[in-house]
Each structure stands twice: as C-alpha cells, then as structure tokens.
Amino acid sequence: MDNFFAEGTRVWLRENGQHFPSTVNSCAEGVVVFRTDYGQVFTYKQSTITHQKVTIMHPTNEAGVDDMASLTELHGGSIMYNLFQRYKRNQIYVQIG
Fold it and tell me: Ranges for the Myosin motor domain (predicted)?
C-alpha cells in the first residue's frame, strides 16, 4: 500500500473497531496526523499504516447519498456519516434498496 497521503485527503480511519471520517492534517518526516470529524487527533508512523487502518474516502460518501444501498463503502461509520450529512441538510428520511 502506498503510505503517502496528501494534506487534506479525506479518509476512513479504523480505530478500536470503528470507522471514523477523518482528514489528513499533516504527513511529514514519516509521521501522519489524522483529525476525525469528531475532533479526535490520531498520529501514526507512516510505516505502520495499512489498508485495514486507513482507506481513502470515496467522494460520494463525502457528500452523502439518497439511497443508502448505493454507498460505495458499507460499514457502520459510513452509514452514520451519511445520516449525519443528510441531517445537516434537513433531509432526514432515507430509502434503503
């Protein structure tokens, strides 16, 4: 896996069995700093980051979708994040399937 992430890249960070929507704050000198959308900060050595730990967020998941069955990444974090995005836009009703 390419362990390089540009600053500002949107990713899913898996920590303690949960997926957190996050942004790469910095990537320098072999250290990557992630900030979750919930304000948490996680720091990792670049060499320890795996695909299971960090995955790039698909652009459709970033904006939210109307039909949750069309989420490109389907896990608890993406479902909750999609509901949160819809709540912010006052679109609280979703369809599934």
Answer: 63-97
